[in-house]
Amino acid sequence: MRISKREPEAKNDAADSWREFPAAQQPEWPDPAELREVAAQLSALPPLVFAAECDLLRRRMAAVARGEAVLLQGGDCAETFARTTADAIRGKLKTLLQMAVVLTHATALPVVKVGRMAGQYAKPRSSSEERRGDLVLPSYRGDAVNGLEFTAASRRPDAGRLRKMYESSATTLNLVRALTTGGFADLRQVHAWNQGFVADSRAGERYEMLARELDRSLAFMRACGVDTRELGTAEFFVSHEGLLLDYESALTRVDSDSGRAYATSGHLLWIGERTRDLDGAHVEYFSRVANPIAVKLGPATRPDDVLALLERLDPDREAGRLTFVVRAGADKIRDLLPTLVEKVNAEGAQVCWVSDPMHGNTITAASGHKTRRFDAILDEVRGFVEVHHELGSHPGGIHVELTGDDVTECVGGGNAILPEDLHQRYETACDPRLNHTQSLDLAFLLAEMYRENAGRSGGVAH
Q: How far apart (Å, rounded) are the C-alpha atoms in residues 385 and 330?
């Protein structure tokens, strides 16, 4: 049965059919009765996002798939309840808006803005346990499951945290909606986004030059009688890894108009590299919801795996339905990506191809900190764009872990962070993130790649 033809009773299928399949990376909840109670409570709560919003994003992602738009997706590696604050949310949003301005100006294409926000509270782990000395405890799986503090009480999975995940996601969404429709995202405020933010960096200086150019363009438009009030708001969507299936199941809703089931915890959800087993519960669940969805593809991905995922998750070959997020590593991207793209194109599928240059380039510094080299991140993005140019396909965009804060977690960038600087503001709950200056650096460098690509192809950056 194809997604577009599901009957109204699909809700029970979408919410429950995954339970018959092996579910990887799920917590060992110590109190099943409490889990059932929390899930029942979540099932009765309002959806966090709506079907019409998900459908709109699907249309925007279809434009990305056709080469008519660019995706910018970014945010925390792992959101935390303590950092669900107005300042933290505003900082991430401001960073993404600035990056979007840079990319829009360079590509002359719309930029689809999607935050890793309002739901990214759970993380898969390579080991279910963590050892420190003689003490062995459950691994930290994100604030939705347990606490970061290395104590038995903190690391005990607590189903009550799923309620807190919903509440924190709702708080984030409310603020994001207020900011993007209430004037904060107004393109006429591009200078204000830079004040006290990155103005003292080279990227900040480049951004100010761009902002002045935009000011002149807007002034010209107003002089010609063009109404620029529509620039006062911004479309912004939220996304997270759909990892905790009990949570996603509880927030599955059926749209009364179409009868299709939606995961209403976020607009776009993705399946991670560790949970994309074709016979697993995550692929089963995602095959039954109508949201635009994504799948992470690591360096060991085989073409047959991708084709099988395509068949399971996008049987109708609908542009905008499926995104492949490639996280190969800088040293492997040029070898892995061409065959995958060619195989998918041969199927006549219009998927979005997106680069995740973060996860394949994680290293451990001498200090013991997990980190990422900015040069390696940049090289993977460059390889991604080069491959698409050679194949005549569209490099759809990037998916990055970033923050609006002045952290010291990734080394390098314009205002170079050195390995010995990592300890100064290493604040991530899981993996290292680009800070605001590095994020803006990346946007400018990616913009140059799109321009070069457009110059070689004789048009816009397709």
A: 12
Taking residues 55-80, what's their average pLDDT? Answer: 97
* Predicted confidence (pLDDT) at residue 356 exceeds the cutoff of 80: yes
Band (3; pLDDT cuts 50, 70, 90):
very low
Burial 19-36 (b: 16+ CB within 10 A, else e): eebebbbbbebeeeeebe
Contact 72, 112 (CB under 8 A): yes
Question: Residue 77: CB partners within 8 Å, gap ≥ 6?
Answer: 116, 120, 123, 401, 428, 429, 430, 431, 432, 433
Contact 66, 115 (CB under 8 A): no
Tokens 């900015």, residue located: 374
Q: 3-state DSSP call for residue 42?
A: helix
In this structure, are residues 308 and 283 in contact, taking their beta carbons and an 8 Å threshold?
Answer: no
Q: Are strands 111-116 and 237-241 parallel, antiparallel or unpaired?
A: parallel
| Residues 147-205: tens digit of each pLDDT | 999 999 999 999 999 999 999 999 999 999 999 999 898 887 787 777 665 556 778 78
Across the chain, what does the average pLDDT equal?
Answer: 92
**Cβ proximity of 85 and 324 under 8 Å:** no
Q: Reduced to 3 states, what is the DSSP secondary structure of residue 307?
A: helix
Number of other CB atoms surrounding residue 191 within 10 Å: 14
